[in-house]
Amino acid sequence: xxxxxxxxxxxxxxxxxxxxxxxxxxxxxxxxxxxxxxxxxxxxxxxxxxxxxxxxxxxxxxxxxxxxxxxxxxxxxxxxxxxxxxxxxxxxxxxxxxxxxxxxxxxxxxxxxxxxxxxxxxxxxxxxxxxxxxxxxxxxxxxxxxxxxxxxxxxxxxxxxxxxxxxxxxxxxxxxxxxxxxxxxxxxxxxxxxxxxxxxxxxxxxxxxxxxxxxxxxxxxxxxxxxxxxxxxxxxxxxxxxxxxxxxxxxxxxxxxxxxxxxxxxxxxxxxxxxxxxxxxxxxxxxxxxxxxxxxxxxxxxxxxxxxxxxxxxxxxxxxxxxxxxxxxxxxxxxxxxxxxxxxxxxx
Length: 348
What we know:
By secondary structure, the protein is an alpha+beta fold. The protein has three domains: about 45-80 and about 110-130, no CATH class; about 135-245, Immunoglobulin-like; about 255-345, Immunoglobulin-like. The chain is about 40% helix and about 20% strand. It contains eight helices and twelve strands. Strands 3-2-1-5-8 form a five-stranded mixed sheet. A hairpin with a 3-residue loop joins strand 6 (about 180-185) and strand 7 (about 190-195). Helix 5 crosses helix 8 (about 335-345) and helix 6 (about 310-315) crosses helix 8. The longest helix is centred in the N-terminal third of the chain and has 34 residues, at about 50-80. It is elongated and about 100 Å long.
């Protein structure tokens, strides 16, 4: 190779090396910025003992894996540097096996895996502990694509918004009526599947009032990504007040527009075929219970805020807002939509 060719090759190698370092740096910076993002669904901000138990196990496994990575890569880099070929070196002495090293690198990972297994079993038994006698019992039922929450001891049903008291166990019974869904609230408890024909259980105790975001984390069809819910944790007095409100039947419409909406809801609008509003002829069980829908934070399983303009958008084109959902509705006039919005917003 000529002098110019060697110089060009050396220059190209230096540029390629510099580009590789820059690309690696950019990738690590992007990863770091993503990891540091403030998200309300972080498993790294546990709000229950059960979530902390899972987080502690995750932390141990992460640091153990990082330690293994550092040791293995460190030995590899040292070997590459220490035993690199130098100009004039003869063929090195060949080694065929090393019993001591082979035994060591078999025992070390086996011991580490045994420790992880022991900690995992300890966590599993801790998470499987039964609920306290005064636990709030809830049947959480997955539908395509929304969550139904039944309170059997309290005598009412709601949808997509689970209310619980702080400092008291929640015993959640998980079911599904169609396909496999899952119940996942990262700050409160790890993901648990909702399987048709099977009942799964999970227990957790929220420690502080707040709103925690949950979602289905098991692919369940076209609108899977839009199957969300919220867990509203309140102090005991606030929870008792919410329960007292939920036990009441739907409020009577206060305005002429709301009265027209009630008439439309229970007759020609066809809403009563799928939805329940307690205290009215509407007793459908296909869609969410709407008895107090005006007091919830969101509609359409967390997709839209409970606000007049958002409800109107939904009524105009539910399939356009959430493709594939099970709601079918005739084309409504703007006056009918206005009346229905007035009625639904009054159901608090």
